[in-house]
């Protein structure tokens, strides 16, 4: 699949905003600690991915009903759904100068019902002209997302026969539908009702 930058300027994928708050001290401190243990962009990106994937449980797996949407809040509460975990990973990558984007899939239940939009991350290592998608959702039985910049290994391969879609757009900021669902939900049950079914 050909990934498409929503903004042609790669520098747009380094900025901070309300959700991708990589200026926040907790994001900076976490990024600095991960960088000091690695020292190069590839190793850092892998460590940041694995940190978000493995140390911040997905709310659906943990049962945590809190709704985090800012990257700093995700790191603080160690909680979030795919969108929120993606915000945290993008913030950590950008904090160390790695261009990072938000991207999405439309997924369904095994019978093709209950479509929901799932959040992912794409990164572009400094000096590269190629984007690679990653899924920091968190692994569990039947889900095995990995850090691989050459051969994509996401949590959920798309099944077009069920109406599932890989959206090719790379967003510099969270998609408004995803961000609105997070911001307007008081708890997880409300968030599940508000999740977008398509972009």
TrEMBL record:
Q: Could you tell me what this protein is called? A: Transglutaminase family protein
Q: Which Pfam families match?
A: Transglut_core
Q: Taking every annotated instance into account, which residue ranges of this chain make up the domain Transglutaminase-like? A: 31-136
Alphabetical list of Gene3D superfamilies matching this protein: 3.10.620.30
Q: List the InterPro entries hit by this protein, alphabetically.
A: Papain-like_cys_pep_sf, Transglutaminase-like
Could you tell me which species this protein originates from? Answer: Streptomyces caledonius
User: Which PANTHER family does its entry note?
Assistant: BLR5614 PROTEIN-RELATED, CONSERVED INTEGRAL MEMBRANE PROTEIN
């Amino acid at each position: 699949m050909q990934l498409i930058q929503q903004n042609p300027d790669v520098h747009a994928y380094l900025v901070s905003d309300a959700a991708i708050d990589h200026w926040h001290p907790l994001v900076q401190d976490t990024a600095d600690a991960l960088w000091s243990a690695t020292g190069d962009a590839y190793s850092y990106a892998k460590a940041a991915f694995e940190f978000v994937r493995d140390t911040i449980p997905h709310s659906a797996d943990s049962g945590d009903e809190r709704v985090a949407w800012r990257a700093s809040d995700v790191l603080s509460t160690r909680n979030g759904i795919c969108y929120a975990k993606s915000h945290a990973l993008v913030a950590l990558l950008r904090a160390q100068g790695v261009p990072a984007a938000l991207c999405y899939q439309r997924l369904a239940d095994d019978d093709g019902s209950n479509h929901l939009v799932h959040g992912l991350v794409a990164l572009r290592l400094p000096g590269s002209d190629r984007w690679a998608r990653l899924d920091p959702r968190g692994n569990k039985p039947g889900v095995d997302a990995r850090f691989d910049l050459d051969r994509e290994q996401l949590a959920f391969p798309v099944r077009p026969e069920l109406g599932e879609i890989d959206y090719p757009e790379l967003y510099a900021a969270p998609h408004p539908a995803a961000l609105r669902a997070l911001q307007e939900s008081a708890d997880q049950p409300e968030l599940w009702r508000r999740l977008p079914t398509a972009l």
